[in-house]
Amino acid sequence: MNRARPSFQKREREKAKREKQAQKAVRRAESKVRKSSGTGMDDSDLAAIVPGPQPKPWDDEA
């Protein structure tokens, strides 16, 4: 009876490992779709920022 138990435990470990890998593959695919579908500017505070030099806030007084 002791010989059957390690192989059963091994099958259970391998099954859990396959399930975890499948879940990770789904998460990776969702992440890839999310990254490719958007521009990355979901934050409204960052949407107004343009690349390049930004105006200095203290130059507005002059």
What would you note in describing this structure?
The model has no long low-confidence stretch (mean pLDDT 80). This protein is mostly helical and 62 residues long. The N and C termini lie far apart (89 Å). It is rod-shaped and about 80 Å long. The chain has 2 helices and no strands. It has helices at 4-37, 44-47.
Low-confidence stretches: none
Helical content stands at: 55-70%
Tally of extended strands?
Answer: 0
> What's the main sheet like?
none
Briefly note the structural class of the backbone: mainly alpha
Number of helices: 2
| Shape label | rod-shaped
Q: Beta-strand percentage?
A: under 5%
Tell me, rounded to a whole number, the average pLDDT: 80
Please specify the SSE layout and strand pairing.
Blueprint: H1 4-37, H2 44-47
